[in-house]
Amino acid sequence: DAKTTQPTSMDCAEGRAANLPCNHSTISGNEYVYWYRQIHSQGPQYIIHGLKNNETNEMASLIITEDRKSSTLILPHATLRDTAVYYCIVRVGSNYKLTFGKGTLLTVNP
Amino acid sequence: NAGVTQTPKFQVLKTGQSMTLQCAQDMNHEYMSWYRQDPGMGLRLIHYSVGAGITDQGEVPNGYNVSRSTTEDFPLRLLSAAPSQTSVYFCASTSGGWASGGDTQYFGPGTRLTVL
Predict the structure, then answer these.
(1) B9-65 tens-digit pLDDT
(2) Cβ–Cβ below 8 Å for A101 and B45
(3) Nearest to A12 by CA among A97, A78, A87, A104
């Protein structure tokens, strides 16, 4: 699976959009981009995933560049409860294993 | 649905002791896996199973055994606990849609293990 690069930490003001970047320049054509988050001491929680097209669900939006070498997770109106470590993971569909990096610690400030 | 459940939530062992971490899911998922997470680190895959009777090693399998006799349960056994196995252990499960990239993994709440 392709490796990903994320900033170590980011801050965001409550109520503003949080934009978390991820670089996956070696991604292959059959690899999906997944985002998970882990709130302190809890198990990771799925957020969203995509292959080529931009995706949106009730939690977030995922913007994947046309060349698929990077993506951005957008939390449209961040709340204090969104403070967590966010993991960007790329995965071949036939390989169900998830490989976690160190992720980005997003801190939402009042 | 209870989702993915893990027991115990906390455990303290002495070096050399053995124990089993329990994981169960009630979603009829085919795939289950065990991860460990050390302080300040991401999760690392220990063992996984693609169905009852089928298991395989992940990234850090040494010191751990698994078996999968039923779809619901996937216990993780520590054979002879060592301080290096002090960690938080997460179990996860997912349906067969995972193979096509169209599904998600659901994680349990974790077991916090300390080996003295």
Answers:
(1) 999 999 999 999 999 999 988 889 999 999 877 889 999 998 899 999 999 999 999
(2) no
(3) A78
Q: List CB contacts (< 8 A) between A43 and chain B.
A: 4, 90, 92, 107-110
Rounded Cα distance between A17 and A81, Å, is 14
Contact A43 B98 (CB under 8 A): no
CA dist., res. B55 & res. B53, Å (int): 7
State how far the Cα of B51 lies from the Cα of B72, in Å rounded to an integer: 10
Structure tokens of A49? 């995933």
**CA nearest B65: which of B20, B16, B23?**
B20
Q: Is the peptide bond before B8 cis (omega within 30 degrees of 0)?
A: yes
pLDDT for the residue numbered B83: 96
Rounded to a whole number, what is the distance in angstroms from the first to the last CA of chain B?
36
Give the residue numbers in B contacting A (CB under 8 Å), as ranges.
Answer: 4, 31, 33, 35, 40-45, 48, 50, 58-59, 88, 90, 92, 94, 98-102, 104-110
* Minimum-distance CB partner of A100 among B31, B42, B106: B42
A66: Cβ contacts below 8 Å, ≥ 6 apart: none
Tens digits of residue pLDDT in A14-56: 999 999 999 999 998 888 899 999 998 899 998 998 988 899 9
Q: How far apart are CA B42 and CA B46, in angstroms?
A: 13
Residues of A in contact with B94 (CB under 8 A): 96
